[in-house]
Amino acid sequence: MHILIIDDDSNDRFMIIREMRREFSDVQVEEVGEPEEFEQALAAGQFDLTITDYQLRWTTGLEILRTLKKRFPDRPVIMFTNTGTQEIAVEAMKSGLDDYILKSSKHLVRLSTSVRSVLERNETRRRASFYENRLQSLLNQLNVGVFRAIPDGGLLEVNSAFLRVLGLNSLEEIRSNSNFDAIFSKAGDLTPQHRRERELKFRRADGSLIWLAVNETLNTTNGEAVIDGLIEDITGRKRAEESLKRYATRLRTLQELDRSILRAILPTEIAEAALAATYPLLPCQILDVTLFDLETQQATVLAVLSNDGIDLSVGETFPLSDFCNIETLQQNQALLIENLAEQPRLYLLQQRLFDQGIHLIMNVPVIAQGQLIGSFNLGAIQPRSLTDEDMDNAYEVANQLAIAIEQSRMREELHRYTEQLEQLVSNRTQQLEEANSALEAFAYSISHDLQEPLRAMRGFASILLEEYDTALNSVGQDLLHRLASSVERMDNLLVDLLAYSRLSRVDLPLQPINLKLLVRQVLTQLEPSLQEKQARVTVVEPLLEVVGNYRTVEQVITNLLTNSIKFVAAGVQPQVRLWTQRRDRSVRLWVEDNGIGIQPQHLERIFGVFERLHSIEAYPGTGIGLAIVRKGIERMGGQVGVESEVGQGSRFWIELPEFFK
Ligand code: ADP
């Protein structure tokens, strides 16, 4: 501890020093008896505390006190004097004196007590002010305003952050404005110890609007009710919340737009859906989608949405030159006029909307595959500036519209093409059917008409063979036999052809067929051929029942069985197996042989008319048998097919609806 002792009486100084040294172990003393020494001590500023006399030769203790307090307001000063009066003491206390002690040997003891308590008090004060400063700077840093108010009686005190938050310079400014009291010193529903939290909008002196969070409690200090409160500027948070909310709405709306566009099919529906979804998003009173025809230079309104009875109708057309600056739109740039009143209305439509009170107009290009196909337009009664967000939204809608309208047009085109194609196919089918039936009628009549002369030829040939055989030499006889067999072959051909063409000409009434009986009947008919070939036919029972035309099924099975014993390698005993298989709601009848088999590339071909894979000499036939099989089965609503491997035999199958009892 460093004590400055100011007294021009060296004996007095000696006494004070002795007393101090006795009381305090670590004391350092600086003596001042002359003004120069005082100046030096002031300049060095080493001391913690001063003890001064009042009556000095060169000044008074009061002056000393004031000089000291001016330079070092926090360092205690004790006046130790025998010349002072009560007035001086009061005066000195007002100037910040820490203690006043009368100078006498009896009071010397008091001096050290006083030094001790003054120092302690000073330390406490210093610490308190340190904490207060720290709190203050903390509060200021937090930007939290603190206030204390009397309920209905105005603000008592505030911190600097309070003033800063509200944009004020002093508490006086608040007091002269009743607006503040209304907000900050109304007890209202406040009850003791219950916190009240509010968020409110506040207009600052400079006109700016801020959001405040106000937090208040009703307390009692010295028996008086006070409101202690905190205010915080939450404008940033509020703005962020609002923009988040706006962003969420925007996202929702755009999603809704996507969905409704997907649901819509026609361009009009798409445009209407887009307008309905966008209307809440954009600050406007009219929205429309207009399509352009750059060839005819016409604009046609596709959809309009307006809640203020603004006159613009769907289907209206304008020359493009009355609409807006198309060239700019073609460069994929939007047109925006924020206040039509301040601009020449260059286009007829602009003037028309302006006459109806519209001030703001924006046209956003709708561009599909690099081509301007129209524009998405909005109009607002209030002139205003659009935000970036508004612009983004408008562009987004225009882009979605472009895609959707383009898709819808493509869909329409595809639809048109499909219809055209279907028409074409149906025309061709009809032509083909007509040609086919003409051909079949022709084939039928030819085969029918040919049968008669053929029958005559066969008659004459057999007379020749029977009665004039011996009249011919061997060459003549050979020729005659060839003639007879050709006639035979032609007859077979005609019979088969007739059977084939009859299949498409007659009705084939359907009935349940017991395949077991039918197969047995066919086998009986084929008995001579089977015996001749020594063929073995196995029928795997039971055979399921089908629905079909009895005669046709009989013919089909006859043809398959005939083939299965015919196309067998020489010297091999034909072995045939028949069985049925249930498939979904139909029955497949299989006819399997151990014949020569068929090469895979011919499997389909053999079902055509006159398609044969062998010479007549090797395997006789007309090439119509399988054609009859296919035609007959298909006319009964069934299917045919074959599986085969060369040298391993073939498996033919026919499929007909199953008969359910
Ligand atoms: P066709 O038996 O009168 O020759 P098809 O129309 O019945 O006429 O048969 C067409 C061709 O299919 C036959 O010439 C033959 O080459 C082949 N084919 C038919 N059935 C069989 C079979 N089971 N095995 C081997 N080839 C067959």
From TrEMBL:
Primary role:
Photoreceptor which exists in two forms that are reversibly interconvertible by light: the R form that absorbs maximally in the red region of the spectrum and the FR form that absorbs maximally in the far-red region.
Mind telling me which SMART domains this protein's record contains? GAF (SM00065), HATPase_c (SM00387), HisKA (SM00388), PAC (SM00086), REC (SM00448)
Q: Which GO terms describe its molecular function?
A: phosphorelay response regulator activity; phosphorelay sensor kinase activity; protein kinase activator activity
Ranges of residues in domain PAC? 196-246
Name by which UniProt lists this protein: histidine kinase
Q: Which UniProt keywords apply?
A: Coiled coil, Kinase, Membrane, Phosphoprotein, Transferase, Two-component regulatory system
Q: What catalytic reaction does the record list?
A: ATP + protein L-histidine = ADP + protein N-phospho-L-histidine
Residue intervals of the PAS domain? 131-172
Q: Which organism is it from?
A: Amazonocrinis nigriterrae CENA67
For this protein, the Enzyme Commission number is 2.7.13.3
Response regulatory domain span: 2-118
4-aspartylphosphate modifications at: 53
